[in-house]
Design a protein that fits this description.
Blueprint lengths: L2 E5 L7 H9 L4 E4 L8 E4 L4 E4 L12 E4 L4 E2 L1 H13 L8 E4 L3 E2 L2 H14 L11 H10 L11 H19 L7 H10 L3 E2 L1 H7 L5 E4 L25 H6 L7 E7 L1 E4 L11 H11 L11 E6 H11 L3 E5 L9 E10 L2 E3 L5 H6 L1 E8 L7 H14 L2 E6 L7 E3 L1
Parallel strand pairs: 1-10, 1-11, 2-5, 2-10, 5-7, 6-8, 7-9, 11-14, 13-15, 14-18
Antiparallel strand pairs: 3-4, 12-13, 15-16, 15-17, 18-19
Helix pairs in contact: 2-6, 3-4
Bound molecules: guanosine-5'-diphosphate (GDP), 6-O-phosphoryl inosine monophosphate and magnesium ion.
Length: about 400
């Protein structure tokens, strides 16, 4: 059995925690897209991990991790993550595998990320500045550096020289050094594997694909151009993994409210003290950049859209405990423009102008409260998809089935 866990919103839905919880039933957790822009926080009873590149497998269980072709890898970030795991006594060798077709994020990708943002001015995306866009752009321009390029010194030297020339000519970025990357590669080389070898060794393994970001940040179906540069919806699974694969279950994760880091329209956003309350009680600060997350009410037109384009089979709700004690919660149920109802518009100008129809539902004291059950049933009936599990707190085991 294979499954995918992915975000139904603009990221940070709690995918890492849910992936860790469910990973015990699989042989591998597989990352298929994104890079170190992802920040997946996993709270174990005694310690906390923030995964940027290492898949969120339960470190206490017999489950392994594979970083597949679709991921862009910052070798320094990966090395630090591996070191942190090992410092906690967690076994990583023979447990983490990285495809040699992965592209490498290079130091000047981060410089270029900043430069592009600054040139865009008021149209900046608000990226994580982790060099993700430039790394995927190099891949598309066919000048990217892949892990397999490190295997032959002559080919590597040629390639590095070519990349330095390309960056100087096209982007006016000079004084490029690869020393750090070469040094970090030495450390991670023992984890690198050809995808064919991985397939051969683990043909019958059950795979849990771990999404990064969320459907609304997908480069094709998200709120373009305020998106990331990869296919983070479910359609990215096969492309990123690099082999045809049957995904038996598509499990979408969503928060009981909504957050967004970075720019772009956000129809149900709460401003001022209202937004601040959600940010404070929900601890809504980026796991990668520490930036305050923009907060707002749950938006059902966006959720319906995300379910439709991802083919979501079932949903898991997180962070409803954050709303415990609120007198009421609001849910955006429809958009309206000039009095006419509409579903999620692709035109971002329209999305930024829509008015939202809200329903106000009674709050709940705790997650056993019948008002909370009413909230879940309301969402299910509005979006036509079942909520199979409720995450009740940040720790891995804080979760109940419905
Ligand atoms: P991800 O990127 O989707 O993995 O999510 P992040 O880790 O960036 O952000 C989710 C945050 O919420 C993390 O700090 C989690 O520990 C925390 N979290 C996850 N599920 C719950 C939940 O049900 N309740 C509460 N209070 N916190 C949660
Ligand atoms: P996880 O996996 C939330 C956002 C950035 C920015 C846009 C583009 O933890 O949910 P990028 O650096 O990718 O070019 O930035 O995407 N973004 C995320 N927002 N969670 C993430 O990952 C994100 N990864 C990227 O804030 O708006
Ligand atoms: Mg995150």
């Amino acid at each position: 059995m294979n499954a995918v866990i992915f975000g139904l919103q603009w990221g940070d839905e709690g995918k890492g925690k849910i992936t860790t919880k469910l990973s015990r039933d699989f042989d591998f957790v597989v990352r298929y897209s994104g890079g170190s822009n992802a920040g997946h926080t996993v709270e174990y009873p005694d310690f906390k991990l923030i995964h940027h590149l290492v898949p969120s497998f339960d470190v206490r269980a017999n489950v392994k991790g594979y970083i597949s072709n679709g991921v862009v890898v910052d070798l320094g970030v990966l090395k630090r993550e591996i070191e942190e795991l090992m410092s906690k006594g967690i076994e990583v060798e023979n447990r983490l595998f990285i495809s040699n077709l992965c592209h490498v994020v290079l130091p000047f990708h981060k410089l270029l990320d900043e430069k592009l943002e600054s040139v865009k001015g008021s149209k900046a995306v608000g990226t994580t500045k982790r060099g993700i866009g430039p790394s995927y752009a190099d891949k598309a321009h066919r000048v990217g550096l892949r892990l397999c390029d490190f295997e032959n010194e002559i080919i590597l030297d040629e390639k590095l020289e070519f990349i330095a020339m390309f960056y100087e000519s096209v982007y006016d970025i000079s004084d490029i050094s690869f020393d750090e990357v070469l040094h970090d590669y030495q450390y991670i080389s023992k984890f690198v594997i050809s995808p064919i070898q991985f397939r051969k060794d683990y043909r019958d393994a059950s795979l849990l694909f771990e999404g990064t970001q969320g459907v609304l940040l997908d480069v094709d179906v998200g709120t373009y151009p305020y998106v990331t540069s990869s296919y983070c919806s479910t359609s990215g699974v096969e492309a990123g993994f690099g082999f045809p694969v049957t995904v038996d279950k598509k499990i979408g994760v969503f928060k009981a409210y909504l957050t967004r880091v970075g720019e772009g329209p956000f129809p149900t956003e709460l401003y001022g003290s209202e937004g601040e309350v959600l940010r404070r009680v929900g601890g809504e600060y980026g796991a990668t950049t520490g930036r305050p997350r923009r907060c707002g009410w749950l938006d059902l037109p966006l959720l319906r859209y995300a379910i439709e384009v991802s083919g979501c089979d079932e949903m898991i709700i997180t962070k409803a405990d954050v709303l415990s004690g609120f007198e009421y919660v609001k849910v955006g149920v429809n958009y309206r423009l000039a009095g006419r109802k509409l579903e999620m518009p692709y035109n971002l100008q329209v999305l930024s102008e829509v008015e939202v129809d809200y329903v106000k539902l009674p709050g709940w004291k705790n997650l056993e409260d019948s008002n909370f059950d009413g909230f879940l049933k309301f969402i299910e009936s509005e979006v036509g998809c079942k909520i199979t599990m409720v995450s009740t707190g940040p720790r891995v085991d804080d979760i109940v089935e419905r």
